[in-house]
């Protein structure tokens, strides 16, 4: 009786993909910026521990190198045995403060963020908070307001695409880290943009109470100093978004890349409605700026009115004093007393 020959590794992977094996992609925006030199130094210092931290062998750990604003870790195989192609792990660090994970468990993602990213971050968005339930004195980040999760489906029949927060990755792209990079760039930019959308929403909620107060009472009781601070914060956010526009442009990574990668990047950006969201964000900035300018003009007019009243009072006092002095010179005052 002849024994059935084992399937080649490639055919096994095809079978696995045909069963719609699923994975996950997570995107974390944790800071304004990640220091390139400090991240490379941190990875080099932890080179012997990366396999334990990532749960896989980092195949490119001999050459940690930034490509413009991107550093990529490719993790193949586990500590015990190789993993199927559908479970290959990748980490993409972006200089503008975003980290994208492919194929990792959530607890490993948090471990990498706390052990590596945290130490090299500049301008962290959220404060560290103690993990109360673990009894551990170490601090963990709370990334609940700065992360996005996507499901990945590996397919041998469909082309690589994204829809309904699900990324379908074609079988022939599973080991192509550049395809994952093209998708990751768009996801990272979208998450970064989401941070500023939340910020401007907070400022809008804070500022909208002032026109309501003016409409209800006819005056604003908020001190000029507080309004000036709010105007300053909005101005800083607007400057940051203007600087962010360089981040939201098509990355230099795609300049020398095949057109298919840029097409994939553009398709994901279109799915995430990047251009529309940027236009909406700029429009909200303009509305907020106009509202604050109106409030500032209102307060300046009130201040000018107060100054005018003070000037008028001073003029009247001066007139009264002048009349008294003239009356004294003419002898109109104190004449009867002198007799």
UniProtKB/TrEMBL annotation:
InterPro entries: DUF155, RMD1/Sad1-interacting. The keyword Lipid biosynthesis does not apply. GO terms for cellular component: mitochondrion. It holds the Pfam family DUF155. Keywords: Membrane, Transmembrane, Transmembrane helix. The keyword Thylakoid does not apply. Residues 91-282 form the DUF155 domain. The chain crosses the membrane at residues 309-333. Belongs to the RMD1/sif2 family. This is DUF155 domain-containing protein. It comes from Pyramimonas obovata.
């Amino acid at each position: 009786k002849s024994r059935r020959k084992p399937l080649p590794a490639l055919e096994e992977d095809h079978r696995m993909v045909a069963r719609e094996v699923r994975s996950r992609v997570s995107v974390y925006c944790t800071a304004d910026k990640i220091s390139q030199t400090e991240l490379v130094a941190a990875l080099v210092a932890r080179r012997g521990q990366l396999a334990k931290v990532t749960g896989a062998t980092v195949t490119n750990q001999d050459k940690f190198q930034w490509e413009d604003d991107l550093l990529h870790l490719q993790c193949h195989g586990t500590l015990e045995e190789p993993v199927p192609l559908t479970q290959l792990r990748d980490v993409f660090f972006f200089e503008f403060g975003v980290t994208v994970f492919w194929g990792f468990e959530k607890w490993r993602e948090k471990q990498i963020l706390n052990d590596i990213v945290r130490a090299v971050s500049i301008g962290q968005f959220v404060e560290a908070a103690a993990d109360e339930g673990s009894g551990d004195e170490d601090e963990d980040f709370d990334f609940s307001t700065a992360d996005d999760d996507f499901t990945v489906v590996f397919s041998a029949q469909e082309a690589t695409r994204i829809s309904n927060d699900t990324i379908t990755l074609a079988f022939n792209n599973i080991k192509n880290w550049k395809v994952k990079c093209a998708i990751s760039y768009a996801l990272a930019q979208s998450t970064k943009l989401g941070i500023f959308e939340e910020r401007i929403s907070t400022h809008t909620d804070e500022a909208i109470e002032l026109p309501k107060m003016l409409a209800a009472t006819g005056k604003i009781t908020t001190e000029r100093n507080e309004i000036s601070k709010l105007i300053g914060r909005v101005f800083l956010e607007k400057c940051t978004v203007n600087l962010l526009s360089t981040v939201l442009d098509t990355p230099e990574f795609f300049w020398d890349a095949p057109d298919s990668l840029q097409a994939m990047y553009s398709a994901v950006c279109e799915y995430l409605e990047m251009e529309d969201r940027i236009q909406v964000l700029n429009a909200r900035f303009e509305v907020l700026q106009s509202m604050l300018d109106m409030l500032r003009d209102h307060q300046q007019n009130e201040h000018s009115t107060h100054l005018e009243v003070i000037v008028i009072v001073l003029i009247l006092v001066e007139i009264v004093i002048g009349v008294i002095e003239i009356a004294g010179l003419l002898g109109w005052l104190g004449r009867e007393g002198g007799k």
